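Hey,

The postdoc asked me to send both predictions to you directly instead of through the lab channel. I've kept everything plain text so nothing gets mangled by the mail client. Protein one:
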Amino acid sequence: MALAIAVVLMIGFGADYFVDGMDGGGNSSSSQTGAAKTLETLPIKGRAPKTGYSREEYGPRWADVDRNGCDTRNDILDRDLTDKAYKHGTCVVLSGTLDDPYTGTAINFVRGQDTSTAVQIDHVVALSDSWQKGAQQLSEGERREFANDPYNLLAVDGPANQKKSDGDAATWLPANKAYRCDYVARQIGVKDKYSLWVTQAEHDAMAGVLASCPDQEVPKG
């Protein structure tokens, strides 16, 4: 009897409905977060002109977009550093230790005019890069969200961040090779989230990195 009911239901709803973890196209829903697969969904286009780009197009620097009383820089330092000390009664991070993903080294952070730049907050997908690959079409509010989105931000080694500048995966990858799969997967996730495109060279560089980690997933966020 149970078998007969199952057959009737399968006819009524379609067999794919009853295959656990499968979407209507026969693809595993869990694989939708695969970085390599998501990369193939990103449009490939040429880099648009940088005309009109300025930092101000993305709103105030390190705004308190989540209204928790802390600017975005201190939110990310608080998230990414360990052994932290704070300015009394505030969320301002005075010191801490960063396990830097870009270099694979530990960095002692001390807030100060001559020391704060040792740890910088990197836009994983650089603002200028995003401007030339679709962000010009985003609203002012969406660009402000992009610039302050923790999903697109990492506390990293200052000199490494300066060397990266506004490069994409075709022109810069972390010196720490063990982090490259995670790095590229996050860039893919950000571009997917904000409907940005990649250049052919960027696509190929990302695919080359992911070839060494075919099971790499796009980070959740």
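Protein two:
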Amino acid sequence: MNRLGRLSRRGWTALAAVAAMASLVAVPPALAHALPAGLGAVLKGAAQLVFSPADLLLVCGLCALAVQNGAEPGSRLRLVLPTAWLMGGAVGLGLPAKLATSWSSTVAFTLVGLLVALAVPLGQRLTTALAGVGGLVCGLAHGSALALHSGAPPALAGGAIAVALITTTLTLALRPPHPGWMRVGLRVVGSWIAASGLLSLGWLLKGPS
């Protein structure tokens, strides 16, 4: 009975995590960079991730990809992604102008979404490498956007903390082994991420009306 209870609690936790990931994936692009006023530098940096759909989709996609490939990639992701984000951001703070990353970030989360939707087995090293590259690129973009603003280092730290919290929460709640419904749920989330990316690419190709 205790074992069944533990499995039941874990199942509910995983279901809540899948639902939370789906909710994060559904953040409308219209909210991008519409940050609430009155936040401190650290909180503003953390909130910027939530209000930046491309980066949020990439983080969620990398979490799903990691747990699809086993427990060890999920453990590595919790360390690699926030660290790479912070390192990339530190470099970005030294750049003279904001980087234009709309295309690269959209292509990145679209590809990650496709990998999750197709449940492509990548293994530990490749999954970790993708997380490192994704964290460096997104951190670099955030750092360059913050470079000319006051309170940039605390804001960057806030963003890295938000990445660490989301990554830790999702990878622990969704850690393997996965029952059938969870495998399907992860692939559905991946398909949503990929579809969002394809739609965003269409908007970028169309350009301003």
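Summary for protein two, as requested: Confidence is low (pLDDT under 50) at residues 1-7, 28-35.

Thanks,
C.
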